[in-house]
Amino acid sequence: MFESLTDRFDGIFSRLRGKGRLSEADVDEVLREIRLALLEADVNLTVVKSLQGRIRERAVGEDLSQALNPALQVKKIVLEELTETLGGQTLRITYASKPPTVVLMAGLQGSGKTTNSAKLARWFRSQGRNPMLVGADLQRPAAVQQLRTLAERVGVPVYLAPDDVVASGTGDPVEVAQGAIAEARRLGRDVVIIDTAGRLAIDAELMEQVRRISDEVRPDFTFLVVDAMTGQDAVTVAENFHATLELDGVILTKLDGDARGGAALSVKEIVGRPIAFASTGEQLEDFDLFHPDRLAGRILGEGDLATLIEKAETAFEEEQAEEAAARLLDGTFTFDDFLDQMQAIKKMGPISGLMGMLPGVPKEVRDVEIEDHQIARIEAIIRSMTPGERTDPDLIDQSRRTRIARGSGTSSSDVSQLVAQFKQMRQMMQQMGGPKRGRKNKKGRKGKVKGRSGGRVTAKGPTPIDKAAFSLPSLEEMEAQLPGRGRGLDDLG
User: Fold this and answer.
1) How far apart are CA 381 and CA 406, in angstroms?
2) What is the distance of C-alpha 132 from the center of its chain?
3) What is the pLDDT of residues 148-183, one digit of tens each?
4) What is the pTM of this model?
5) Which residue, 302, 242, 240, 290, is CA-closest to 264?
6) Do residues 121 and 85 lie in contact, with contact meaning Cβ atoms separated by under 8 Å?
7) CA 431 and chain centroid, separation
8) Which CATH number fits the domain that encloses residue 243?
9) Among candidates 107, 131, 106, which has minimal Cα distance to 121?
10) Is the peptide bond before 100 cis (omega within 30 degrees of 0)?
11) Rounded-to-10 torsion of CA 362, 363, 369, 374
């Protein structure tokens, strides 16, 4: 969603890197380009003016003309002010002292309200909570059925009105919400998520119905689900709902879309309420707390190591990762290990999205589209090998390559290329692990190992290693390496 904005900022800061000193005129030129970039991204004009004014005040006040590295100084200021525009800090979810904690979901029809209610329930489950979904959208029977299906996938109970009431469309959503709260207390559910009805446009009936539910259940959190693809209309919708419901936050959907992203940059400053959660895909797991500093860093091309680490910790089993690392450095890494690592990486999301989280990745590399079928082709080649061939690629001769190519629907050259690249990778990683320790005879010379050249010289299985050397670092350790953390850009200036 923010690719074009990232490219514009890349161009702005690239031109700054060529300057030894910045005059006030240079600062004004930079601010003009930033203003144009934000307006092209469909950011609200009031937000653009406010952001531009804060950046100029700090840039001129810090006397950039005397800075040793003005480009880094300007980038640091823009990063901090952009983070503030996006909300400054991640919303902290607190829980009611007397359960259940009630969450009211509101929004227009088609914004993804029902789906994100299920995503939110799944998120609460990951936090160790016991949520329950409530179908208070009695205007559309299909919405009730959708919520029931999603609840089964997430693994949480759902409270619904009787089927005949839902079919008639005449039920009272306030009574459903009241009954759900009582049922949650009886079942010991500590979080209740109420999915309310939506409309194709804001109207008095919609607002009155949502207000009545809110007055009755007194929710701890009221979240508005808005579609980021609607641009400035999303900000207008948030303003109207906030006037009626006193929103606690916004859930922004379709952040993985190709819209210009102005809604994300505008909603906090215009509405006065933060973006609480962000939905970045169609899958139920594509949902998490919104981190303003991480998104600001990605927009400015600084990557998002913190999110990347969180995804890796979720996708990789720690012990399996340690064993694979040991085999990789020991030279016993096989195609089976490689296949396992590919499967784990796929769980982390699209490869292009992961590349965007790495800091310092050039635009040409970041924009490369890695299609799923390219990954599938590699998997097909590996799965067409015998267990022996996966363990020892040296066994693969011309006839075996032909058989593997036929089995995977590829060509012999594709098989040869993959095997050659795998061997090179294994050899390189083995060299990084250190030279092999040979046996010495009495004269101090290394003895020769009998058998064919290139055979295994180590025992099967991973070499005992210090597991701490391959354990994932903590988020605090990695966040200290992010811009603005620890030794920041000030120290580089």
Assistant:
1) 9
2) 25
3) 999 999 999 999 888 777 776 677 888 888 899 999
4) 0.64
5) 290
6) no
7) 34
8) 3.40.50.300
9) 131
10) yes
11) -10
Domain assignment of residue 475, yes or no = no
3-state SS assignment for residue 101:
strand
pLDDT at 453 over 50: no
| Strands (DSSP E) found in 173-283 | 191-195, 221-227, 249-253, 275-279
Token pair of 250 as six digits: 């916004």
Q: Give the least confident one: 184-193, 279-288, 331-340.
A: 331-340
Degrees to nearest 5, angle at CA 411 with 406 and 415: 95
In percent, how much of the chain has pLDDT > 90? 16
Measured CA to CA in angstroms, residue 108 lies from 102, 206, 234, 256 at distances of 20, 9, 10, 20
Give the three-state DSSP class for 332.
coil
Length of the chain equals 493
Q: Give dist(CA 129, CA 126) in Å, integer.
A: 7
Picking from 254, 271, 303, the residue at the C-terminal end of a domain is 303
Q: Are 223 and 288 found together in one domain?
A: yes
In a domain, 169, yes or no: yes
Range(s) of the domain holding residue 275: 101-303
CA-based Rg of the chain, rounded to a whole angstrom?
28
**Sign (positive/negative) of CA torsion 135, 264, 91, 344?**
positive
Domain endpoint, select from 303, 332, 347: 303
CATH value at residue 29: 1.20.120.140
- Tell me: do 135 and 196 sit in the same domain: yes
Residue 102 — φ and ψ, nearest 5°? Answer: -100, 130
Output the pLDDT for position 315: 57
The answer to whether 113 and 119 have CB atoms below 8 angstroms apart is no
To 10 degrees, what angle do helices 412-432 and 398-408 make?
Answer: 110
CA-based angle 163:168:170, to the nearest 5? 110
Q: How far is CA 211 from the centre of its chain?
A: 33
Q: 217, 100 in Cβ contact below 8 A?
A: no
CA distance 165 to 151: 20
Question: Tokens at residue 384, please?
Answer: 């067409």
Instruction: Kindly state whether residues 107 and 223 are assigned to the same domain.
Output: yes
